[in-house]
Amino acid sequence: MSGTVCSSGAVTQAQRAVEQLRLEAATERIKISKAATELMLYCQENCRQDPLLSGVPASANPFKDKKTCILL
Amino acid sequence: MANEGLRDNETLSSLKNESETLKCKLEEERAKLHDVEPFLSVFFFQQDGKVIVWDAFTTNKEHAVTMPCTWVMACAYAPSGCAIACGGLDNKCSVYPLTFDKNENMAAKKKSVAMHTNYLSACSFTNSDMQILTSSGDGTCALWDVESGQLLQSFHGHAADVLCLDLAPSETGNTFVSGGCDKKAMVWDLRSGQCIQSFETHDSDINSVRYYPSGDAFASASDDATCRLYDLRADREVAIYSKESIIFGASSVDFSLSGRLLFTGYNDYTINVWDVLKGTRVSILFGHENRVSTLRVSPDGTAFCSGSWDHTLRVAVGHQRTRPPAKFIFHSGPERPPQFIKSSATAIIHADSPC
């Protein structure tokens, strides 16, 4: 009967959803204070190597304007 | 009978109730660990780096490779730089070995790897040229073996089209994050196919996801005009990058090398640069004449490239609010994902989609 088929499909879907949620509810979490601090530490450790943050010296910039050559 | 598949004491309504209870419990558990407003009370002042705009012309030769396939929506470079993968409305992902020999016909060497039942929205090689991860409008992601075309793993869980994916930085293991039209961002285990974590705080489609360089967090860009940062170990959203004046959807997002800056492309033709830690906008870049559809920072972090519906790809080195943005190089055609190999200006690939 079509009614049976529909509810079996809905049941399987609901079972899967519940299993997935059980899994997610059981995951280990850490406090935001700790997580945020670690993100910040990573930033600080690497900010010196970040060219978009600290800029690139003119000599190393591949996109800089080429000066025209003036013939005297 | 209607009770087939049910275990003892289970009915459809009891499963639904349990589902609701678990969802509430999940939120409660997450809230318990929300001991501080992320970054606000823990932040301490640090010296701001200077950002500089260079008026620039490229001096390097760009290698633009046009994909010989129609309606391309996704493309990716193989880690070796020897092959390219692309796909789109053909529901497939195909791999082309790259050749600079003009006599060779790249299309002839095409290998179809992935087959979905709807459009291919994104693709990415894993750490080698041998495996490709794809996401599709059919709501699934899949891992394929390039050589045999075999499906190695499929990832089911999204309730609507999957629009984007990003692999975790290789040091942090075998996971990837995907974002979809169901407003969810999901983190998956590559080997088991299991969804490990999911986040549903956006109000609309998630167009782009990108891992934080350390792999402990990821950012997402959405049609709800916000970008958000999710910390994987705290298992929740920790920052939201938005302004009342920004009302158009965000299409693309990428981090600078240190993770301090977040570059985001929008449908209002602009690129906004955010301070990841402070949550404030650092800079806004103009120049594109239509929606910015995609954006990537180069692997060495010296430049970033944005692609737009105005048929151009533009590369910028640095950013600054007051001075005019860097001059750009133009390519013809494309709007879809650019990628850099190795260093900032050596190669950009783009996908040609016929209008």
UniProtKB/TrEMBL annotation, chain A:
<dbReference type="InterPro" id="IPR001770">
    <property type="entry name" value="G-protein_gamma"/>
</dbReference>
<dbReference type="Pfam" id="PF00631">
    <property type="entry name" value="G-gamma"/>
</dbReference>
<comment type="similarity">
    <text>Belongs to the G protein gamma family.</text>
</comment>
<comment type="function">
    <text>Guanine nucleotide-binding proteins (G proteins) are involved as a modulator or transducer in various transmembrane signaling systems. The beta and gamma chains are required for the GTPase activity, for replacement of GDP by GTP, and for G protein-effector interaction.</text>
</comment>
<feature type="domain" description="G protein gamma">
    <location>
        <begin position="7"/>
        <end position="72"/>
    </location>
</feature>
<keyword id="KW-0472">Membrane</keyword>
<dbReference type="InterPro" id="IPR036284">
    <property type="entry name" value="GGL_sf"/>
</dbReference>
<keyword id="KW-1003">Cell membrane</keyword>
<dbReference type="InterPro" id="IPR015898">
    <property type="entry name" value="G-protein_gamma-like_dom"/>
</dbReference>
<keyword id="KW-0807">Transducer</keyword>
<keyword id="KW-0449">Lipoprotein</keyword>
<protein>
    <recommendedName>
        <fullName>Guanine nucleotide-binding protein subunit gamma</fullName>
    </recommendedName>
</protein>
<comment type="subunit">
    <text>G proteins are composed of 3 units; alpha, beta and gamma.</text>
</comment>
Automatic annotation (TrEMBL), chain B:
<dbReference type="InterPro" id="IPR036322">
    <property type="entry name" value="WD40_repeat_dom_sf"/>
</dbReference>
<dbReference type="InterPro" id="IPR016346">
    <property type="entry name" value="G-protein_beta_1-5"/>
</dbReference>
<comment type="similarity">
    <text>Belongs to the WD repeat G protein beta family.</text>
</comment>
<feature type="repeat" description="WD">
    <location>
        <begin position="252"/>
        <end position="284"/>
    </location>
</feature>
<feature type="repeat" description="WD">
    <location>
        <begin position="199"/>
        <end position="240"/>
    </location>
</feature>
<dbReference type="InterPro" id="IPR015943">
    <property type="entry name" value="WD40/YVTN_repeat-like_dom_sf"/>
</dbReference>
<feature type="repeat" description="WD">
    <location>
        <begin position="113"/>
        <end position="154"/>
    </location>
</feature>
<keyword id="KW-0807">Transducer</keyword>
<dbReference type="InterPro" id="IPR019775">
    <property type="entry name" value="WD40_repeat_CS"/>
</dbReference>
<keyword id="KW-0853">WD repeat</keyword>
<feature type="repeat" description="WD">
    <location>
        <begin position="155"/>
        <end position="198"/>
    </location>
</feature>
<keyword id="KW-0677">Repeat</keyword>
<dbReference type="Pfam" id="PF25391">
    <property type="entry name" value="WD40_Gbeta"/>
</dbReference>
<protein>
    <submittedName>
        <fullName>GNB5 protein</fullName>
    </submittedName>
</protein>
<feature type="repeat" description="WD">
    <location>
        <begin position="285"/>
        <end position="315"/>
    </location>
</feature>
<dbReference type="InterPro" id="IPR001680">
    <property type="entry name" value="WD40_rpt"/>
</dbReference>
<dbReference type="InterPro" id="IPR020472">
    <property type="entry name" value="WD40_PAC1"/>
</dbReference>
<dbReference type="InterPro" id="IPR001632">
    <property type="entry name" value="WD40_G-protein_beta-like"/>
</dbReference>
